Amino acid sequence: MSNVEDRPVEQDVCSADAAVAGEPELEPLRPRDVPLGGPRAMRVRRVLPNRDRRMVGAWCFADSYGPDDITGRAGMQVPPHPHIGLQTVTWLLQGEVLHRDGLGSRALVRPGDLSLMTAGPGIAHSEQSPPGHSPVLHGAQLWAALPGAARTTAPAYEFHTGLPRLDLPGADVAVFVGELDGAASPAGVHSPLVGAALRVSADVRLPLDPGFEYAVLVLSAELTVEGREVPTGDMLYLGRGRTELALSAGRPAHALLLGGEPFAEDLVMWWNFVGRTHDDIVEARTDWERDRSGARADPRFAPVTGYDGPALPAPALPNARLKARGRYHRH
């Protein structure tokens, strides 16, 4: 998914120098409402990056959307757009999303499928509700930052079905990234990371790795996390040092558990790019503008074939250089 804002908020640097708490904590993170693809398009709830916390492990971006009735409407329509320095994850509860990218990949993503794209130094992709789509669209889009050693890894696309699951009293868990309680996803990631989809219908306790920091993103119905009610679209940051997580729901609720080792590198995030310096971002933007116009025979961002329409232009860069601020903000 693209950040389609024409004036994207400068996300600056997620600084590794800022201390990361080593003890459990509870920090509510509220999303902001963002239009996806124009004033008549669907809207998403963007909870990462957040004013107070920009990352959870390597997870640096989290949108949730729906359930939206898209009967008779186009639904999700995100034109070809670029990424660098990250992996994208698409996870659906309802509906379908058609993924195309510059590698020639084409996949129709349905609930329970994992769509994972690795950008490396550069890739472009599009995301659409297909013709004849289901009436309701409901899901999430996530980004995980690539560590320095993986920034030049070749762009790649993975599509997985039949993911490993945990069938627990009171919860069904699908592990789409990393490992949880012995269930390990086949997805290729580049830092210690976990992502799991939760369907909670009663009281349940999930085992956690105390070396990871975690957060829970609620996708539907109100879920109680560690005794605190978390509404749809909100995230509750849990800190580090936990060996288990207490969840409860009076009726079936869906959520994502995200976690990982605190990311140990400085990141500059702007628009759809994750780099290390202001110059990384400028170079990527310049290359994208050249490549989408077809000005180079050997493009960094190969064109997305099969999409009927123009690629997304890059917004203007801010007048000032992107500056370093903390990994998270403390009041």
UniProtKB/TrEMBL annotation:
Residues of the Pirin N-terminal domain:
42-143
Q: Where does the sequence pass through the membrane?
A: none
Which stretches does the entry tag as region Disordered? 1-34, 292-318
InterPro entries annotated for this entry?
A: Pirin, Pirin_C_dom, Pirin_N_dom, RmlC-like_jellyroll, RmlC_Cupin_sf
Q: Which residues form the Pirin C-terminal domain?
A: 198-292
Checking Pfam families in the record gives:
Pirin (PF02678), Pirin_C (PF05726)
Give the compositionally biased regions (Basic and acidic residues). Answer: 1-10
Which PANTHER family does this chain map to?
A: PIRIN, PIRIN-RELATED
Family, according to the entry, reads as follows: Belongs to the pirin family.
Q: What is this protein called?
A: Pirin family protein
Q: Which organism is it from?
A: Actinomadura sediminis
